[in-house]
């Protein structure tokens, strides 16, 4: 049975934050996070954001270039955060950021960032319409605008390279 989708959903409704402790099975021989594990967590976080927003199943359509900004060490807390910042007819763009935390040292480091596109699916697993994005607060509008600007800058930079 189809879930009714309202006309507008707020950015805050899509916000997702996941946490992991970096354990040995997700590290390389240097004791740092495997890039593939980080990408896996980012994809899951983005999909949860998309599902919360669309109130439907979603599939990953694309992932932009990933910027790995710093290492995540064995034992660090890995925090993956995502939110929908733009929509198309059947798609949602999701900003996903990763940071590492070491509470015992009061340390928090940005470690990865990317933009994902997800497509909402109906009951027959065909693309289906998503709600429009609402940003009812200044904070939500700022997050949306920042994500749009960063994605534009990133795409321009990559086009020049």
Automatic annotation (TrEMBL):
Its EC number is 3.1.2.20. It comes from the Archaea. InterPro entries: Cytosol_ACT, HOTDOG_ACOT, HotDog_dom_sf, Thioestr_dom. It holds the Pfam family 4HBT. Keywords: Hydrolase. This is Acyl-CoA thioesterase. Residues 12-124 form the HotDog ACOT-type domain. GO terms for molecular function: fatty acyl-CoA hydrolase activity. The keyword Transferase does not apply. It is an enzyme of class 3 (hydrolase). It comes from Halalkalicoccus tibetensis.
């Amino acid at each position: 049975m189809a879930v009714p989708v309202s006309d507008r959903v707020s950015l805050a409704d899509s916000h997702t934050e996941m946490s992991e402790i970096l354990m040995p099975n997700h590290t390389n021989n240097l004791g740092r996070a495997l890039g593939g594990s980080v990408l896996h967590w980012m994809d899951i976080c983005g999909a949860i954001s998309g599902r919360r927003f669309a109130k439907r199943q979603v599939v990953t359509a694309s992932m932009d270039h990933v910027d790995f900004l710093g290492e995540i060490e064995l034992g660090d807390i890995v925090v993956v955060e995502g939110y929908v910042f733009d929509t198309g007819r059947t798609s949602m763009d999701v900003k996903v950021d990763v940071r590492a935390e070491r509470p015992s040292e009061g340390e928090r480091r940005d470690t990865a960032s990317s933009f994902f596109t997800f497509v909402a699916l109906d009951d027959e697993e065909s693309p289906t319409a998503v709600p429009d994005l609402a940003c009812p607060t200044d904070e939500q509008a700022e997050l949306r605008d920042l994500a749009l600007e960063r994605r534009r800058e990133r795409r321009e930079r990559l086009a020049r390279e």
